[in-house]
Every structure is written in structure tokens, then in C-alpha cells.
């Protein structure tokens, strides 16, 4: 296994389990503990982890954004359920905006079954996924390419979005908090989401349950009456009461 492949796998484990031990990783990959320590040092310099005695923990800094390829491997079953429920909310013939995230890619896979659909997106992976789909017309925003998320951002992307009025905006996020609202880790990503929301008659927020109670660097929006949250499982009583008070519909994959 190449060093970069091992590092990516370690990040995937951290994303799921939040912590790793040098001794366990050494046995798992059949390399020396010193090799694993070097891997963790590199990940720490890149801002993804914090080294601890005997191992490392995931860096939960509110402005750190894990690479898309790592996020795509996390909570796949939950995201697949969310994608299926989101697709059920999209009607043939509609125009929608779809942002860039690991969940958005799965949603795009489900949308390929639709007819006469128009999808406006800033996601390079969604563009590729939907290319060649007979029932889907795809419009790219253009803009500045973010390598870590394979998304197109910046003023150029927003100017394209602002030309259109669509039926639905399907958005992802990093966190949902009762006081801070919907948040994301990157300013330019947040700006695109805000723009998409303003262009749509209805907003669908696709977020797995791990996002509830988390706060990240940039505020995207406050939830409002008429919004829809699609998540993987039924929220707690506290969160259910919060969504009911806000007038937000909650749809789960359970």
C-alpha cells in the first residue's frame, strides 16, 4: 500500500471513530510504529488531526474541511437513505439547484431516474455523474475550483446562479445548531449555498443526524417555515420540538 493510500485510510477511520492508536495502526498496516507516527505528523501538519499520547484524534476545528474522497467513505448507508428520500421530493420536469458534497453525489445518482429535469450545480462530481443522462439537463456554474471538495465557487459561480429561478435548492451542510443555525466550514462554499437558497421556491437540507448540534465556521442560513430537512433517523424529542416550532418538515430514512 502506498503511503498516501494509508494516510487516506487513517483519515477515514478517524472520521468514523474520532481517534486512532499508533500500535493498532501499525498492526493493521504491517508497518513500524515509527512509520505510523510519520503519517500522523503529516496529517497534523495538514490540519486534519491532533496527535495525542500513543495516537491521534480527529481535529474538530470549525474551519477544517476534510477532503471529499474521505467524506464519501463516511456514513455511506445513512447518506444513501437520505439521497433516496431527497429524490422522492423531486418531481419530473422541475428545475433544481444541487450543491457540492458527498451526499449530493449520491442524490445525483438517484436523480438520473427522473425525466425532463434541469440540474444547476457547482459540483464537478455531480456534473460528471449526470453527464449523458437522457432525462436530465445539466448546467454548470463555472467559477474557482476547490481541489479538496471538487466544487466551483466564487463570484463567477454566484453570478451564474443569480440568473435562474428554480423549484428547489438541495443543500448540504456541516452543522445544524438551535442557536447558530445551519453552518459550513468554508466561506466560499457557504456563499454558494446562500445564493442557491435565494433562487429557489423551496429549500431541502440533506444532512445526516451527526450534523445536529454541530457548529462550524460560516453561517449559511436560519431554518424557516416551509424548509425540509431530510436526515437518516428520527431526531430526539428536543430536536423534534425545535423543528416543529420552526415549521420545518423532517423526513427520515427510517
Describe the structure concisely.
This protein has helices spanning 3-17, 22-29, 33-45, 68-71, 76-88, 102-111, 124-130, 155-161, 187-199, 237-246, and strands at residues 19-21, 49-52, 55-58, 95-98, 117-121, 136-140, 144-146, 151-153, 166-171, 175-177, 181-184, 200-206, 218-221, 228-231, 249-252.
Share in helix: 25-40%
Strand content: 15-25%
Q: Give unreliable regions as ranges.
A: none
Give the helices and strands as they follow along the chain.
Answer: HEHHEEHHEHEHEEEHEEEHEEEHE
Secondary-structure-derived class: alpha/beta
GO molecular function, one term: DNA-binding transcription factor activity
Keywords: DNA-binding, Transcription, Transcription regulation
Domain HTH deoR-type: 3-58
Organism: Candidatus Limivivens merdigallinarum
Give structural notes.
This is DeoR/GlpR transcriptional regulator. Keywords: DNA-binding, Transcription, Transcription regulation. It holds the Pfam family DeoRC. The chain is α/β, with parallel strands linked by helices and 254 residues long. The protein has 10 helices and 15 strands. A 7-stranded parallel sheet has the order 6-5-4-9-12-14-15, with helices on both faces. A 3-stranded antiparallel sheet has the order 1-3-2. A hairpin with a 3-residue loop joins strand 10 (175-177) and strand 11. The longest helix has 15 residues, at 3-17.
Secondary-structure topology with pairs:
Elements: H1 3-17, E1 19-21, H2 22-29, H3 33-45, E2 49-52, E3 55-58, H4 68-71, H5 76-88, E4 95-98, H6 102-111, E5 117-121, H7 124-130, E6 136-140, E7 144-146, E8 151-153, H8 155-161, E9 166-171, E10 175-177, E11 181-184, H9 187-199, E12 200-206, E13 218-221, E14 228-231, H10 237-246, E15 249-252
Parallel strand pairs: 4-5, 4-9, 5-6, 9-12, 12-14, 14-15
Antiparallel strand pairs: 1-3, 2-3, 7-8, 10-11, 11-13
Helix pairs in contact: 2-3, 5-6, 6-7
Amino acid at each position: 500500500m502506498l503511503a498516501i493510500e494509508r494516510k487516506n485510510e487513517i483519515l477515514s477511520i478517524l472520521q468514523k471513530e474520532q481517534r486512532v492508536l499508533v500500535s493498532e495502526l501499525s498492526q493493521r498496516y504491517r508497518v513500524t510504529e515509527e512509520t505510523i507516527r510519520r503519517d500522523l505528523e503529516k496529517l497534523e501538519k495538514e490540519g486534519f488531526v491532533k496527535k495525542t499520547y500513543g495516537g491521534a484524534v480527529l481535529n474538530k476545528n470549525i474551519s477544517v474541511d476534510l477532503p471529499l474522497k474521505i467524506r464519501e467513505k463516511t456514513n455511506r448507508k445513512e447518506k444513501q437513505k437520505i439521497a433516496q428520500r431527497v429524490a422522492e421530493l423531486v418531481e419530473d420536469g422541475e428545475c433544481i439547484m444541487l450543491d457540492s458534497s458527498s451526499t449530493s453525489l449520491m442524490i445525483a445518482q438517484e436523480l438520473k431516474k427522473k425525466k425532463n429535469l434541469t440540474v444547476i450545480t457547482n459540483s464537478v462530481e455531480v456534473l460528471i455523474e449526470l453527464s449523458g443522462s437522457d432525462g436530465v439537463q445539466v448546467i454548470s456554474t463555472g467559477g474557482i475550483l476547490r481541489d479538496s471538495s471538487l466544487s466551483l465557487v466564487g463570484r463567477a459561480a454566484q453570478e451564474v446562479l443569480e440568473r435562474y429561478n428554480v423549484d428547489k435548492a438541495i443543500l448540504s451542510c456541516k452543522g445544524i445548531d438551535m442557536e447558530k443555525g445551519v453552518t459550513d466550514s468554508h466561506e466560499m462554499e457557504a456563499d454558494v449555498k446562500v445564493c442557491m437558497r435565494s433562487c429557489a421556491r423551496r429549500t431541502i437540507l440533506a444532512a445526516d443526524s451527526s450534523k445536529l448540534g454541530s457548529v462550524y465556521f460560516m453561517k449559511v442560513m436560519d431554518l424557516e417555515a416551509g424548509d425540509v430537512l431530510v436526515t437518516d433517523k428520527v431526531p430526539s424529542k428536543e430536536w423534534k420540538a425545535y423543528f416543529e416550532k420552526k415549521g420545518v418538515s423532517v423526513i427520515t430514512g427510517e
